[in-house]
Amino acid sequence: MSEMLTNEPVQSSEQTMRGLFLAVLKRDLLLSYRRRSDLVNPLIFFLMVATLFPLGVSPEPDFLAQLAPGVVWVAALLSTLLSMDSVFRSDFEDGTLEQTLLSPQPLFVVVLGKVIAHWMLTGLPLALLAPVLGIMLFLPDGGMGGLMISLLLGTPTLSLVGAIGAALTVGLRKGGVLISLLVLPLYIPVLIFGTSAVQAAVTGLPLGGYLALLGAMLALGIVMAPLAIGAALRISVSG
């Protein structure tokens, strides 16, 4: 009987946090769906980079195949960064963010739900669209799997790290440039290991080590980034 009494609060707390997470996730997905232009812009930018790059450099297949991993990853990085300013902006402008900070709801869960919603609307479509860009840039078939897996592991980390910069600049009118200055240096490890994983897949070398590093950075980001985002939001809103 005593065990049942001690387990009930734990279960109810877990259910409350799960319900809060799903509610935040559903809300942000619905709001983003109403602003369809915000969803399409990163994808258009992603395609434009891959389309214009051969025109500006060289259309030779062998040359493009060598540069394809880096080009796709840089395009995905910049496309993710392009949409980061809107993660907390609308909530800040209508007062929802301030009410969230004042409410007793766990900020960690709220922030994590908003970041995952952003990834589902930007990073996930980019990862699914990446093989099309790989074909356009003559990436060998052996690198397609490594490209998609590395993007699926790396783009959530880009969203988590980028949300820290978005939280720090949410109170500024023109925070997009500052987000780039704050976040781009932190994106470099993800870019290096993501590109290396694709290159290893193309050359037939084992890529498990690179994917493990990307997974480790993602795990660290899930644990630490929401805490940093919450602190940054409190500083921005209170300031």
From TrEMBL:
Q: Which InterPro entries match?
A: Cyt_c_biogenesis_CcmB, Cyt_c_CcmB_bac
The molecular function terms of the Gene Ontology recorded here are:
heme transmembrane transporter activity
| Family under the similarity heading | Belongs to the CcmB/CycW/HelB family.
| Transmembrane stretches, start-end | 39-57, 63-82, 116-139, 145-170, 177-198, 210-233
Which Pfam families does the entry link to?
CcmB
Q: What topology in the membrane does the UniProt record assign?
A: Multi-pass membrane protein
The record's subcellular location field reads: Cell inner membrane
Q: Which UniProt keywords apply?
A: Cell inner membrane, Cell membrane, Cytochrome c-type biogenesis, Membrane, Transmembrane, Transmembrane helix, Transport
UniProt organism field = Pontibacterium sinense
Protein name listed in UniProt: Heme exporter protein B
